[in-house]
């Protein structure tokens, strides 16, 4: 069923400082995941699989990569009423500055939101990993006659400081919304749910607004953020309810969370799987050859994307992205390798050997454990990379570390024989 009376806004303009250096040259929603996808493919696919095809991506920071991906991937036919449209931050007679937060981004694009006269507006984040059918979510929103419906999930106490915590009354109406409480005393008067392991209800950053209610909230004042300002300030003026989601959901907000969520994809029964023919995750079609694994190679618990070449190497519990080149004699484990761009791999003006650079990929005899290797990285022969002890942070010429996870940035060159 198509929901042409709903406009979807996917927020994709944040700086993503906690995901640096993966966000050095791209926005958070453009960060690769699962060997061949981008994070933004997740909410877009959820929308398309749920019958929502009027989708806008709000972009601002480091947006070229994201724009290229969207325009090359989501091309609807001329007979479709839907589209995936980019709404970039822009200067207008009414607004001369950048987006100042989630609510400010939506406020500055209200002209585009209002033009099709939607009944409801669904607002999503562009950097979450989850699979959700939005149709029951919308049905609940309309059945309860809510002005705002928040998708929530139970979480443990360890996670409350990075999420918005919600309290409801017996009728299910939201009575408190506390954004990322740093002091547990702020939750003294918040009711816990009867789940010893996950006693708190947390907002997923997934909202449905009655369109006119959204306009009222945003035009009432100039507050910049939904979680910090708009939602808490609207508890007494608008009817706000929750919709509990019981599936897997992960906020890819830090290097550590990205790393752990990526490696979990390689599990025999992963918490999130791209293998669902009924509700596929869409991405840009690439016409790469099959992956090539030579004799003498050993692969155990590996997500291997097309176009990759594994030469006489041993790989364990790792994600290997498109057009990756590994080996020979490489040992790699607990690693997320993003692969290479076609243009960088094949459109080189001069042979790499004449420029004194290692080839793109991982060279002979390397030993890598516990790393993230971004696209087009050149790792010379005999390099050793290991997790830093005690989850340390570090910044160096050709790598960074966050919570102990070593990250080799996009286009970086690691000289032969380097030990990290």
Number of domains: 2
Instruction: Summarize the biggest pleated sheet.
Output: 9 strands, mixed
**Briefly, what CATH class of the largest domain?**
Alpha Beta
What is the 3D form? globular
Counting copies of identical and different chains, the oligomeric state is single chain
Low-confidence segments, ≥5 residues, pLDDT <50?
none
Under CATH, the topology of the largest domain is which?
Spore Coat Polysaccharide Biosynthesis Protein SpsA, Chain A
Mean pLDDT across all amino acids? 91
What structural class results from the helix and strand content? alpha/beta
Find the count of extended strands (DSSP E, 2+ residues).
Answer: 27
Protein described:
This protein is α/β, with parallel strands linked by helices and 420 residues long. It folds into two domains: 6-264, Spore Coat Polysaccharide Biosynthesis Protein SpsA, Chain A; 292-414, UDP N-Acetylglucosamine Acyltransferase, domain 1, CATH 2.160.10.10. Helices cover 18% and strands 29% of the residues. The chain is built from ten helices and 27 strands. Strands 1, 4, 5, 6, 8, 9, 10, 11 and 12 form a nine-stranded mixed beta sheet that branches. Strands 15, 17, 19, 21, 23, 24, 25 and 26 form an eight-stranded mixed beta sheet that branches. Strand 25 (400-402) and strand 26 (405-408) form a beta hairpin. Residues 8-267 form the Nucleotidyl transferase domain. InterPro entries: ADP-Glc_PPase (IPR011831), ADP_Glu_pyroP_CS (IPR005836), NTP_transferase_dom (IPR005835), Nucleotide-diphossugar_trans (IPR029044), Trimer_LpxA-like_sf (IPR011004). This is Glucose-1-phosphate adenylyltransferase. Its EC number is 2.7.7.27.
């Amino acid at each position: 069923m198509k929901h042409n009376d709903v406009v979807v806004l996917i927020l994709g303009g944040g700086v993503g400082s906690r995901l640096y250096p993966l966000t050095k040259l791209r926005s958070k929603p453009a960060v690769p995941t699962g060997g061949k996808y981008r994070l933004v493919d997740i909410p877009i696919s959820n929308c398309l699989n749920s019958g929502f095809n009027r989708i806008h991506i709000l972009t601002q920071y480091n947006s070229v990569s994201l724009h290229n991906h969207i325009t090359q991937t989501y091309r609807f036919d001329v007979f479709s009423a839907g589209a995936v449209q980019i709404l970039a931050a822009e200067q207008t007679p009414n607004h001369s500055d950048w987006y100042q937060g989630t609510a400010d981004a939506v406020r500055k694009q209200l002209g585009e939101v209002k033009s099709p006269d939607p009944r409801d507006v669904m607002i999503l984040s562009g950097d979450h990993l989850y699979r959700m059918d939005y149709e029951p979510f919308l049905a609940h929103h309309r059945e309860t006659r809510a002005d705002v419906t928040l998708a929530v999930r139970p979480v443990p106490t360890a996670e409350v400081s990075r999420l918005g915590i919600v309290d409801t009354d017996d009728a299910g109406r939201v009575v408190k919304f506390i954004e990322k409480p740093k002091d547990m005393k702020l939750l003294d008067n918040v009711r816990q749910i009867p789940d010893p392991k996950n006693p708190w209800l947390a907002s997923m950053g997934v909202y449905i607004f009655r369109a006119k209610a959204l306009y009222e909230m945003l035009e009432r004042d100039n507050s910049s953020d939904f979680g910090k300002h708009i939602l808490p300030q609207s508890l007494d003026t608008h009817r706000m309810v929750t919709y509990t989601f019981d599936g897997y959901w992960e906020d890819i907000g830090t290097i550590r969370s990205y790393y752990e969520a990526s490696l979990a994809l390689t599990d025999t029964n992963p918490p999130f799987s791209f293998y669902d023919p009924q509700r596929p995750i869409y991405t840009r079609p690439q016409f790469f050859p099959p992956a090539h694994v030579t004799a003498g190679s050993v692969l155990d618990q590996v997500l291997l994307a097309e176009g990759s070449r594994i030469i006489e190497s041993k790989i364990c519990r790792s994600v290997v992205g498109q057009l990756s080149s590994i080996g020979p004699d490489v040992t790699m484990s607990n690693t997320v390798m993003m692969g290479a761009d076609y243009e960088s791999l094949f459109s080189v003006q001069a042979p790499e050997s004449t420029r004194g650079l290692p080839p793109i990929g991982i060279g002979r005899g390397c030993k890598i454990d516990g790393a993230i290797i971004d696209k087009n990285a050149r790792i010379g022969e005999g390099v050793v990379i290991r997790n830093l002890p005690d989850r340390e942070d570090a910044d160096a010429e050709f790598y960074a570390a966050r919570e102990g996870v070593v990250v080799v940035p996009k286009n970086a060159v690691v000289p032969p024989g380097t030990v990290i």
